[in-house]
Request: fold
Amino acid sequence: MSSPLHLPRFDWEASASLEDLLNDILAIQRFPDELARVLKQVDDQNRHHAYREGGWTINQLVHHLADAHLNAFLRTKHLVTADADTIQPFDHEAWAQTPEIEFPLESSVIILLGVHQRWSGLLLECLKKPAEFLPRAMHHPENGRRVTLVDMIRLYAWHGQHHLMQISYAIENPVVTGK
Reply:
């Protein structure tokens, strides 16, 4: 029997240098390709496997990544243009149950390819003017934090890897769901 998956939590308080942020942006840029490589091991049957009992299936994780990263890109655009001061939250659990969650994984991979290309390009441009863009922040009503662009970069570099580890673990150590 394999050992349970232990994932690090995101550290909101960790500091990040410009070099760290550049590496995080490059991780965001590479993420769709990394995901596509892992998903080559997924077929119509194992896409319904989870990484733990009660956890989301590979299918739900991939579609969640598209939902969350599209929202993160839009939040980044709001931060850069300073046209909003509060993040619009969404119910991750409810979104993981919507009918299109059964659509092919490729539909979300295609979304991620386009979003990450534009998002990482925007973030790289913002990194050229760190004093102007990095301190910008919006209020997150779910956790009460002022979320800066630095936080967004760090969070979503972590977020992609976090779920990529869950998907990889589900492929290697599947928990079969009712599908």
